# Entry
Amino acid sequence: MASAQVERLYHSTALLLPDGRVLVAGSGGTGSEPSETNAELYSPPYLFKGARPTITSVPSTAIQYGSSFAVTTPDAASIKSVALVRLGSVTHAFDQEQRYVPVSFTAGSGSLTVQAPSNANVAPPGYYMLFIVNGNGVPSVAEFVRFPALWEDTQPPTAPTNLTATAATGQVALSWNASTDNSGVALYDVYRSTTSGFTPSLANRIGQTSSTSYTDTGLAAATYYYLVKAEDAAGNLSPASNQASATVAADTTPPSVSITAPANGATVSGPITVTADASDNVGVAGVQFLLDGNNLGAEDKTAPYSVPWDTTTASNGSHALSAIARDAANNKTTSAQVTVTVSNAAPPPPTGLVAAYNFDAGAGSTAADLSGNGNTGTLANATWTTAGHTGSALSFNGTNAWVTVPDAKSLDLTSALTLEAWVNPSALGTVWRDVLFKEQPGDMIYSLYANQNTTRPIGQVFIGGELSVTGTSALTLNTWAHLALSWDGTTMRLYVNGTLVQSAVAAGTLPTSTGALHIGGDSVWGEWFKGTIDDVRVYNRALSVSEIQTDMNTPLK
# Structure
């Protein structure tokens, strides 16, 4: 074998030429190697084993996948193999388009009948060199042939044949014989109607499959008619198959279902997974889990059936789990209940809590501060009510009722804060409705309102002036809602029922003031809340959304 005259390294290339020789060229260009701006032609030994066969002609138009085509040659009787070689695309010594595709053929008088590859997965669209090789292993000079791109394919598949439909309770099983296509069948479209002789269309197409069978489930009692079409990768549709029909009997058998975990009588804590087994004579459409008779998560429509349950969102004590299974005919079965005991340790008190009021005393003229900071509030015209969000609460009359918390160093929140409260407004209108308001002469330092003149909740801080973040919709009258305002020194965020509804830039430092912290009103503008307030919290840091959601779901104790 002849040796190369030049060492070819990085940035070199090598290409097989139509005449069977190999072009090698280039190298270097990296600074450490010489740049070879020259080329060599290598003649392999197979070119020296005798006379070369010749090709007289090949198809001048694109060759269709799966078809046969003629190659004329005076050497047909001596040809032992035919191959397609993708045109090279070489960079950095790698041929990105390297592909050698041997093809079958039969020899005739003065020609070869060659079988094209079945689809584009074997030979992607584009140009190929076609070589014929004789018994001595000597190749011809190649001729170029081309396979069409998908967008050039206009030939539809043949129609599926022998479509049959077999009815069972609530379903019909279909099967048919495969179609053929020049580029390969991609899938089958299945059509259904309750009218014989119908025309298939997108409106009555019920499914697609790559196999030659399909099961149509969830059917009511009736007679159904079916057609199937084949579709290739270019989107060409075959003619419709023969029509098949089947008469379905009504499905009246409900599923069976049972809770498999946790076990009956188990004690649970933290996050767990509730699981169930379900079966049906036709098929289970979904399983809905229940906690104490209420939906637990969304319906699970895929086996194995399960739902996550964070038991910390439930109170400690006994709870009942069950599941409802349904089938496509909407037959339903409810499982036997599984009783579990939830036992979760109380979460540690959150850091940064400077004032907290649960208003559970039910009587008296003061509201105790549960944060341990001694920020006791004094009631004026506010009344106790047992109709709190959890336990008791305070009711405010909307005219002169409030709770006054004297100024304290712990309430001077200069660099970060979070304000939270459960509110149940009985009136809103276009009036500003105080929830929390830390005063300074003629203005506020920080505040949280259930409503303002554009009927939205709003949070505010004072940094050289009032900066606000406003909700996107009004609160609902006579309905409990959780409001929270966080500020981290740069951004204010307003949450309603644990969901962030708006944020706004608020960079800077809050001033301090000897003004009181008021709940339900203020003495600056005389803005008063009307309704009920429960579980008020004030932090000296900005809580995360998960911490706010935990507060929302955890009563103050």
